[in-house]
Amino acid sequence: MSHQQDRSRPSGSSTPLSEAYDTALLDLDGVVYAGGEAIGHAVESLARARAGGMHLAYVTNNALRTPDAVADHLTELGVPAEPSDVITSAQAVARLVADQLPPGARVLAIGGEGLRVALRERGLVPVESADDDPAAVVQGYGGPDMAWGRFAEASYAIRRGLPWFASNTDLTIPGARGIAPGNGAAVEVVRIATGAEPQVAGKPLPPMHRETVLRTGAKRPIVVGDRLDTDIEGAFNGGVDSLLVLTGVTDAAQLLAAPPQHRPTYVDRDLRGLLTGQPEVTPAGDAYRCGGWTAAVRGGRLVLEGEGEALDGLRALCAAAWAFAGPGVCGLETGKALAGLGL
What we know:
Helices cover 34% and strands 22% of the residues.
């Protein structure tokens, strides 16, 4: 059952999510690992979910690495994975390009090895220069050492009228030392230089969801992510449920302000949330109750009262904020209500 239609409060689940859904479509950066190291509780939580029969697939907007490299990295971290378990935005954009160009077409590839491998998989020929007679330009994350001249090469080709594709438009990417510019920032550089608009494949757009379903065969998937504007919106656009984990770029204040397409079905601290049910958030007059907490909007402010598990307080606050905002964004000040939760 999908909870897509009700975005006024987080949903509850009487059974562990790993049993309620057949496939977890897991984001990587900020969910399974950050800066190459496993996030706390990720390895053991995924092992238990897998042992219980849940299929695990790893869905990343990062087009830099190949599925083989990602699977090897996951396995080294203690999360056994095959290349076929990994779906990247490079694969999604390569299919998008292949649907519009003839087999064997030359494509100017602005990005890393993951992008080139994905293009070859679809029968396309990656080239390095605007003067190599490409039929299109494809841009994906090329890592922190991407040469500025690559953006110039893309701009030359696009200004000659070639179609432009981007693997994704995430403005940032989390790393061991903090938040760094992502492929979306690089896309903006080329957009400024050309005035053009790319066709985009990655989360939250339909080509990525299509690629994921085609490759996993998921019947009852749940998207697990840390980003509202990619993971959660992608699940919303695909009509499937989602779990937001607070181990990446989204903080509690951003969650409370989320518009409907950015509101997850469930919220939890980390991947241990896959192994448990989720508490119900229930209306209580003009307030919302979860666990030992009650949240409401009073006098134009979010108010939280009670005690207990901090996540339950956040879930109650989500219900109060989202119900107040309706189809819009909750603009209420949230700092005081969140102060006592330590999130």
